Amino acid sequence: xxxxxxxxxxxxxxxxxxxxxxxxxxxxxxxxxxxxxxxxxxxxxxxxxxxxxxxxxxxxxxxxxxxxxxxxxxxxxxxxxxxxxxxxxxxxxxxxxxxxxxxxxxxxxxxxxxxxxxxxxxxxxxxxxxxxxxxxxxxxxxxxxxxxxxxxxxxxxxxxxxxxxxxxxxxxxxxxxxxxxxxxxxxxxxxxxxxxxxxxxxxxxx
Length: 206
Prior knowledge:
The protein has helices at about 140-150, 175, 190-205; strands at about 1-5, 5-10, 35-45, 45-55, 70-75, 80-90, 100-115, 120-125, 135-140, 155-160, 170. The protein is mainly β. It has a six-stranded antiparallel β-barrel with strand order 3-4-7-6-5-9. A four-stranded antiparallel beta sheet has the order 1-2-10-11. The longest helix is centred in the last third of the chain and has 15 residues, at about 190-205.
C-alpha cells in the first residue's frame, strides 16, 4: 500500500522500533560494486532516464526495477535519490535467452549528503542535477533510513518499508494531522485497517 509516495507494509499489531545502525555501508574497492544497476542517458528538469541491461536469460528484474522503488545516482559529493515511475524494454519483444536493454524513467526527489560525522542527511529538491553517464545504484539501507525516519518526538512507527522490511515506516503525527492526506490501495489491501492504525497511533501520541 502507498503512504506519502512510498510503498509501506502496514502492521495491525504492535511494532517494535528498529534502531538505525551507526556503521556505514562500505564496499571493498577491490571488488565489483554489486549495487551498480545502470547509467543516466537523459535528464529533463526533475526527471531522468536510466538505461540498464539484464543478464543473459534473466527474466526477473523485480529485485531492482519495480514501480515505486527508490534508487540513487552518483553526483559528486552527494547522491541523488530517484523514484522509478515507468519501465520499458527497448525492442519489440523480450528475449528469453539473450540480454535485454531496459529503460527506467525516474523522478528526482531529493539529495543525500554525508555529514562530517559520516551520517547521511536527506533534503528535498535537487541542487546538483546529474549529467549524462553517471552510475545509478541500488540505494543503501542507511540512505533509506535517512529519508524515511523523521527524528521527532511525535513520530510513530506504523509498519515497515516494502523496499526494505528491516526499516520501520514512520509518520510525524503533528504533520499528518495538520494537512490533508490520502490512503490509496485496491479493494482488500487494508485501507480501513491502515486508517484505524493511524488513528490509534494519533490518539497514543496525544
